[in-house]
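Changelog-linked ticket: phosphoenolpyruvate example.
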Amino acid sequence: MDTQRRPLIGGNWKMHGDGDEAISLANSLADARSVAELVVFPPFVHLGVVTDVLADSEVMVGAQDVSPHESGAHTGQTSARMLLDCGCTWTLVGHSERRHELGENDSLCAAKVTRALQEGLNVMLCVGETLEEREAGNAHQVVQDQLLESLKGCSSLDPGRLALAYEPVWAIGTGLTATPEDAQDMHQALRKTLSGRYDASSATGCRILYGGSVKPANAAALLTCPDIDGALVGGASLSADSFLAIASAAESWTSS
Ligand code: PEP
């Protein structure tokens, strides 16, 4: 992590928990103070209650997905404006579970990124390779292609509004984690790609998070890498203690 960039720690609650559990988890985060920016991504049906609980807190709320459409006859979809109206400030785009379970491709991700940014939502764009792609030696190419294709509609990059999450698919929810060296290598390459596509200062300002079985025990080793600016946390974000312990790992690094 570079001290010019404020660390960002995201908690992806995925499709876990009922309303009471979401309120209770949000309540346990409400007084959190951190050097890192914190954002949680609850299931859609709990966004209203979670934004209420966290309204006066430092913890931001995001959605796990957003529609590429402005409004209209799009059954089951949720627009960026609806999310903003309900108190969200962020959305995930391109999480691998949506790419792989629902067949979301880069052009759909690009439409979502463009729409969300246009309407005023901040975007956390997820990219990552499968195990087969890594073993075939294609990880860098795959991830670079996802990045460039998903940003096709963005002629400029506002690093305050767009963050990346590098999440190797084989590390999500599996207990396997990329080594800090491999993760750093990919983050550095992503930053270089951003610099080529936009400019050096946007690339330097953009937060690139690592995701894939991040836990309190492995967070510090990852977050000390110069191009890893935070974490997107799935399983370990379902406990306030472990989520905040990961945020503290960012804290001890930035203050050291
Ligand atoms: C995720 O949901 O983006 C994720 C990285 O999950 P986990 O931390 O459980 O691997």
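Closing comment: Example verified and attached. The mean pLDDT is 96. The longest strand covers residues 122-127.
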